Amino acid sequence: MQNHEGRVSGALAAVLRDRIARTGPISVADFMALALTHPQHGYYAACTPFGRTGDFTTAPEISQVFGELTGLWCVVVWQAMGRPAPVSLCELGPGRGTLMADARRAQARADPAFIEAARLHLVEVSPILRKHQRDALATAGPGSQAHWHDDLATVPEGPLLLIANEFFDALPVHQFVRTDSGWCERCVGLADAFGAGDPDLAFVDVPLPAPPVLPAGLADVGPGSIVERRPAADALITAIARRVCRHGGAALIVDYGYSESAPGDSLQAVRGHAFHPVLTRPGEADLTAHVDFAALARAATEAGAAVFGPVPQGVWLTRLGAAERARALLADATPEQAMAITTGIRRLTHPQHMGLLFKAMAVSAPGLPPPPGFDSPAP
């Protein structure tokens, strides 16, 4: 069976079953990393997940206003930094390039000097998505030539403006389970439901020799509770914070998740704009888990950076002028365009849609004023 741009169905499941049969159950984090980034069979290796024909739709695909306001946010922060030139404008996981293309068009109108100063760096592992990004940026005008990187480590040192929209939710999570007899790590193992043939992938709880290191309030949860931790996210936000402290700059993180650390199983798979069983057909569905913004804030603060927020996405976009920009677009819109503009802004800002669950947080060098849309630094 062929699907997702020619991928052979079940190929990654076979790789996982073979590995587990040889070495034993793997952590949820390892399963998630392989399902998303395996070089041949991972989700991002051969598919375009975004948009109506993909598996999910992100904010930049819903309304151009999101990318425009994000781009203007960068310009205002750059001006507050003293207008350094050059400055690295970096996006983690740029999707199809829609956000950055919209951002560059808005930046060119707002301050052409920023276009001259900014060097565009995109962190993207998918060759297919890199092509989409290149095509999108080709329509964004002068100054939109990009350099691509597999990770942040190869982005040049120097003043930095970084955007991470729905990036941290895809970083692998470990899941720890509190049982009556102690802590276990939730892993992915094998369960041969029929006694013969290819076994199914199944969650198994593996006892830990010592309790996991957890923040206050999560270490004493009751039996049956699940706690998720994301070491890769802590390491990444620490690296970002250290960069902006060394050279100046700020990072904008927009994602869905918790303002405060909380127990719960938030791991989910999405395929064809619908929820999908997590262990079924790995590599053919997107895998995400809620972002723990409190954990990100702790790590960034410990690295010496100032942290602003998180604030609900709807509040942040409203403060930036989403309604005013929508009204300007409506002035010249056809009836069909007007419906799309109005519907898109509502999806992005209304609490019953993306306005409350999605949140924005900024991490900046100490001494910079609060970035647009944020109040004073988090305590």
Distance between the termini: 53 Å
- What is the CATH-assigned architecture? 3-Layer(aba) Sandwich
Let me know the number of strands: 18
Indicate the CATH topology.
Rossmann fold
Outline the biggest β-sheet. Answer: 8 strands, mixed
Class based on secondary structure composition and strand pairing:
alpha/beta
Helix content: 25-40%
Number of domains: 1
CATH class: Alpha Beta
Cα Rg: 21 Å
Discrete helix count: 13
Percent of sequence in beta strands: 15-25%
Assembly context of the chains: single chain
Please name the defining characteristics of this protein:
379 residues; alpha/beta; Rossmann fold; eight-stranded mixed beta sheet; five-stranded antiparallel beta sheet; 13 helices; disordered N terminus
Describe the structure.
This protein is α/β, with parallel strands linked by helices. The chain has helices spanning 11-23, 28-37, 43-46, 59-62, 64-80, 98-110, 112-117, 127-137, 231-247, 293-302, 313-320, 322-330, 335-349; strands at 2-3, 7-8, 26-27, 87-92, 118-123, 146-149, 160-165, 174-179, 182-191, 200-207, 226-229, 249-258, 268-271, 274-276, 286-288, 291-292, 306-312, 358-364. Strands 4, 5, 6, 7, 12, 16, 17 and 18 form an eight-stranded mixed sheet that branches. Strands 3, 8, 9, 10 and 11 form a five-stranded antiparallel sheet that branches. β5 (118-123), α8 (127-137) and β6 form a beta-alpha-beta unit. α5 (64-80) packs across α6 (98-110) and α12 (322-330) packs antiparallel against α13 (335-349). The longest helix has 17 residues, at 64-80. It is globular. The relative contact order is 0.15. Mean pLDDT is 92; it is low at 1-8 and 193-197.
